[in-house]
Amino acid sequence: MESLIRIVNKLQDVFSVFGEQQLTDLPQLVNLPQIVVVGTQSSGKSSVLESIVGKSFLPRGTGVVTRAPLVIQMIRYTEETKKSMLMSNNIEDSENITEWVEFLHRPNAYYFDFDLVRNEIECRTNILAGSNKGITKNQILLKIHTNRYDLTFVDLPGITKVAVGDQPADIDEQIQELIISYVKQSNSIILAVVTANTDPSTSESLQIAKKLDPDGIRTIAVVTKLDLIDEGTQQDTKDLLCGRRIPVKLGIIGVVNRSQKDIVENKSMDATLKSETEFLKTNYPDICTKHGNRALAHTLQMVLITHIKKVYPKLKIELEEMKQKLGKQLLALYTPDNKISFLIGLLKDISKSYEDTINGNQNDVPVEKIVGGANIARIFQQKYLKTINAIDPLQDLSNENIAKILLNTSGTNQSTFVNEKALQKILSRQLNNLIDPSLDCVELVRSEMLNILNSIDTRCLDILKRYPQLNEDVQKVFEKLLEQNVNNIKEFIASYIESYQECLNTANPDFIMEIVKSNNTIQEEILAAANINKSSDENSTEKIEINRIQMLNQLLSGLNNQEVSLESSEQVMLHRDLSICYFEYIRKIVRDFVPKRIKHKMINSFLKDLDKRLNQEIFQTYLIDNKIDEVLLESESYKKDRIDVEAKLDAVRKALKSMVDIQYF
């Protein structure tokens, strides 16, 4: 079972190759199962860890001493492992060597003196965090080879409230942010260190744990300084140790560690453990076996092993997903061996991906937003049709305006019953209101088609970002091709609507039907103006409609010879109503025509020509001007990114390989 912990140690090792900048984000990058140690500066956190390890090796002093996340891996060695280490260091006398340490940042260096281990931690901390008592998110990873047990934990900087010396003024916020970045991870076990001589309700470590693990399912509490409480408060302390005051699920363990006097006098760890055992037996005889540093180490082992087995399936899925993601990133960052083939393939991929995005055939369909052709459809449905349907057929046209048009188009002659010249002028004026919304629709589609270029396959977009000149030239091809299509279609749409403005056809059956389908008021006004009455002996709705169509056809084709004197107001109402019906008739035609024309002559034509134009204006031009090598010159930043992604991908693959062994436990 202890090998499970060693596998997690391997995972910590492989992810440390990401370098200092990436190590900053390690807790967010991979949610590893680990124990994170949280406590205030004076809580006895360092003493707890040293008691578990059995050696004094952590930096000590005033203020913030632990200034970097310290990943401590305890590895129980075998005799074979020890022999191999001794041989590699040419050491023959091994009787006094029972533990040794390795640092990940110092490969092939072995430390047998734990005072030197402390010095190396301090030195590395100063390199990573500076010498001004500030902190860093970058980890220091050390392996302690021991004959005790397998265990791993992360020691975090002690919580503080006040900056001292030349520490940053916001040191407390920095430490809180660092601690939370580890504690918030669902796979982290929180080892909250609290002191027995303070009120647990005010404990900073427990407050953080409660905030990020409200049910206490990931929290173990360690109560230190049991030997410093007053005799009269022992029952309160016992209640605390029995879980009656701290709501945590993984256990509460009390410990007695070395005092400052013990440290100064260099009291051994074995002697400290012996003193602790005697103290617990004397003061807490009925619960003594459940407390102490030995009980703590055993509990941490069992909790960590159980937790590793529990989170394994989810962690494996996360690593598989990360492998896929990094693989795609690396694909976009690879250096082409044959730049000509690479460029041809890229341009074809851009064209294909753009067409797929327009037609809704993309591989990764977004679920959080509308993109591609769907957005163009929304322009037609929610913007264009809404705008065109909202236009008033009589916009800015009063009855007085109509009367003046009737008079001005008659000249010296009396206005005829249906003044087609006046009707044509009225409709030409009103149908003009359909032009601007239709041309605006073209512009909206043009803008969206340019935006769609940013929604194509992310691999293509990532490659374009690597080569600024190529990216700019692709943008220019899109803009130029769209401009040509837009100008042509705008001219055609405007001309199409103008043809209805200039050429009226009031005898068109569809227009007649528009009158028939209009509301009763308009029908009655038109028929009254023509002095046409309903036949009282006809009771069939169908016959009435047929009769009306025949009469309207006669009226509007100029075949009605009734000599009836029409008053000016009747004539105005007649031309107003005819204008409304004719406008509605043309509006239906235009609102159906414009989206179809845009799809056919703007979108489809663009897609048909895109591949050819990219080839002609980019590849052929680069080839003729001998610019391919120049344009595909990769910046240093992208070389660095590629190396970084390769390292990450290699680490994830190693991690997955290491995790294969877990399934056998």
TrEMBL record:
Gene3D superfamilies: Dynamin, middle domain, P-loop containing nucleotide triphosphate hydrolases. Coiled coil: none annotated. Keywords: GTP-binding, Nucleotide-binding. GO terms for cellular component: cytoplasm; membrane; microtubule. Belongs to the TRAFAC class dynamin-like GTPase superfamily. Dynamin/Fzo/YdjA family. This is Cytochrome P450 CYP6CY8. Residues 29-313 form the Dynamin-type G domain. Residues 572-665 form the GED domain. GO terms for molecular function: GTP binding; GTPase activity; microtubule binding. Pfam families: Dynamin_M, Dynamin_N, GED. The keyword GTP-binding applies.
